[in-house]
Structure to design on (334 residues):
């Protein structure tokens, strides 16, 4: 894509795992694109040096190194640890089953920050242990729940707190491809916008993608009794990740994962006198494509200036705990 930074003050990065989220999603995209991957964001930012990568598949590792101008490649994270290289940032993009091991090894490298894909590990107990270990070693842990870096979502959070849409009445999130894999994204987003939620009911599971991660319909209750529902699609049909928020002054819908937003405001009905209805609304582009660049900018300032991270091990753990509770409540169907 483009050469790594030659600035001696650039933050040195190790990417663990060379799949889609590491760099693959940005392959073949047109010039001037906003990156969706770790490698793409680090390279586009310019204040990072993508120094090395870890990937057991030799062909995939070689391709990643060639595309992203990476100078060192390793078959295992232990090889990277033993190489003597010093890394400021370790980006963990390996499969979820590998995260705990990779996090443990990354901590031995003593980087300035770890940036890990979600979910952090395969169990909340293991996640809690590793989050505590990061805190004890004073190594900040960022977790890629990307919408916490989406400027549109952050504006919505401020608008909701400022009462711009009135009172929140209910929320419905549509997702597929597993409660932990994609459902945790929705739960994390709802935690950010709505707040802590209690599980009311869990419905029948659908094994639409991962054998051990069913997609589940869920009814929850947020602060002040706000009704929240997770409704399911099927991953075999198409990808879906959308959220509709019903307010006293209108509705706001996040479409296509945040690529678009639809606003409809409450107005006086022209058909039925004395009634209020929703207008035709507007659909506009969102700012989700800029989220990964915002993430690495946040990471840079967290290291250089001590800025707080927008998405942390603690916030990721909160979403994972709810996911596990949902799975436990679904055991009657499993």
């Amino acid at each position: 894509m483009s050469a790594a930074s030659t600035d001696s003050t650039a933050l040195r990065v190790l990417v663990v795992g060379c799949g889609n989220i590491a760099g693959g999603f940005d392959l073949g995209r047109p010039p001037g694109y906003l990156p969706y991957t770790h490698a793409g964001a680090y390279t586009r930012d310019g204040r990072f040096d993508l120094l090395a990568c870890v990937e057991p598949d030799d062909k995939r590792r070689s391709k990643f190194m060639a595309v992203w101008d990476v100078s060192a490649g390793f078959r295992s994270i232990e090889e990277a640890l033993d190489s003597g290289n010093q890394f400021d940032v370790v980006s963990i993009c390996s499969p979820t089953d590998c995260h705990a091991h990779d996090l443990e090894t990354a901590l031995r490298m003593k980087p300035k920050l770890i940036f890990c894909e979600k979910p952090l590990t395969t169990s909340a107990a293991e996640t809690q242990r590793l989050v505590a270990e990061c805190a004890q070693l004073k190594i900040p842990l960022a977790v890629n729940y990307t919408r916490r870096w989406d400027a549109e979502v952050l504006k919505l959070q401020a608008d909701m707190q400022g009462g711009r849409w009135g009172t929140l009445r209910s929320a419905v999130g549509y997702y597929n491809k597993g409660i932990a894999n994609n459902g945790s994204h929705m739960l994390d987003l709802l935690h950010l916008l709505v707040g802590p939620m209690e599980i009311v009911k869990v419905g029948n599971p659908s094994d639409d993608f991962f054998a051990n991660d069913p997609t589940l319909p869920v009814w929850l209750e947020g602060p002040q009794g706000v009704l929240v529902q997770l409704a399911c699609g099927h991953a075999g049909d198409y990808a879906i990740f959308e959220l509709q928020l019903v307010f006293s002054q209108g509705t706001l819908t996040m479409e296509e994962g945040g690529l678009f937003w639809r606003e409809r405001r409450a107005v006086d009905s022209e058909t039925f006198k004395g009634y209020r209805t929703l207008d035709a609304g507007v659909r506009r582009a969102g700012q989700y494509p800029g989220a990964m660049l915002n993430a690495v900018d946040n990471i840079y300032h967290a290291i250089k200036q001590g800025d707080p991270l927008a998405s942390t091990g603690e916030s990721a753990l909160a979403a994972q705990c709810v996911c596990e509770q949902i799975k436990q409540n679904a055991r009657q169907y499993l």
Notes: The chain has two domains: 11-117+141-146+292-311, 151-286+321-329. The mean pLDDT is 95.
